[in-house]
């Protein structure tokens, strides 16, 4: 909670400085993180997993003249570069894996991705996530195990369905 309060205060200072210098109306502000953090969930106190608490990160984009909204589409951090390029009127290169998510700023219901992929190198974990399912694999060939979670019925990822023949 202290970290959240501190970041809130620091973001407030940045916004205030932009307003005081007349730069706010021509500055895009993005707040994000490279990972989330477990606070005891799944018996972990760390940031190196691909469970929801660690794989899901904050993403707040404030663009002058755009109204605040909450968007629920899956995105990936590699989407930031093409998005910022687009918002700045620059060409978005076709070769990029990231997607321009700026349409969400005008249409919060817009879906950018049907699936998202995350990696936790320290645990050799991989996450493939869609709107309903989270599939986790440990190791290139799943030698460390697999997990499957129904994110609609089990958003806290308590029940691993990977060994259930129905799934």
Ordered list of secondary-structure elements with their pairings:
Blueprint: H1 2-20, E1 29-32, H2 52-55, E2 59-62, H3 80-87, E3 115-120, E4 125-130, E5 133-138, E6 145-150
Antiparallel strand pairs: 1-2, 3-4, 4-5, 5-6
Quick structural summary:
With about 170 residues, the chain is α+β, with helices and mostly antiparallel strands. It has three helices and six strands, in the order αβαβαββββ.
Structural overview:
- It is built from three helices and six strands, in the order αβαβαββββ.
- The protein is α+β, with helices and mostly antiparallel strands.
- The mean pLDDT is about 90.
What average pLDDT do the residues reach?
90
User: What structural category do the secondary elements indicate?
Assistant: alpha+beta
Q: Which consecutive residue ranges, at least 5 long each, have pLDDT under 50?
A: none
Question: Can you count the beta strands?
Answer: 6
Secondary structure tally, helices: 3
Content of β-strand: 15-25%
Q: State the separation between the terminal residues, measured CA to CA.
A: 38 Å
Shape: globular
What is the radius of gyration? 18 Å
Helix content: 10-25%
- Order of strands in the sheet with most strands: 3-4-5-6
SSE order, one letter for each helix or strand: HEHEHEEEE
Q: Sheet with the most strands?
A: 4 strands, antiparallel
């Amino acid at each position: 909670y202290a970290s959240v309060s501190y970041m809130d205060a620091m973001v407030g200072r940045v916004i205030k400085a932009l307003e005081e210098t007349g730069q706010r109306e021509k500055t895009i502000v993005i707040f994000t993180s490279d990972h989330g953090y477990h606070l005891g969930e799944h018996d972990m106190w760390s940031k190196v997993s691909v469970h929801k608490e660690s794989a899901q990160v904050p993403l707040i984009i404030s663009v002058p003249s755009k109204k605040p909204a909450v968007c629920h589409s899956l995105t990936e951090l590699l989407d930031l570069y093409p998005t910022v390029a687009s918002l700045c009127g620059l060409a978005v290169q076709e070769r990029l894996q990231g997607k321009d998510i700026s349409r969400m700023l005008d249409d919060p219901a817009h879906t950018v991705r049907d699936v998202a992929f995350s990696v936790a190198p320290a645990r050799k974990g991989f996450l493939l996530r869609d709107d309903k399912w989270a599939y986790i694999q440990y190791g290139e060939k799943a030698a460390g195990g697999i997990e499957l979670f129904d994110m609609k019925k089990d958003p806290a990822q308590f029940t691993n369905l990977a060994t259930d023949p129905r799934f």
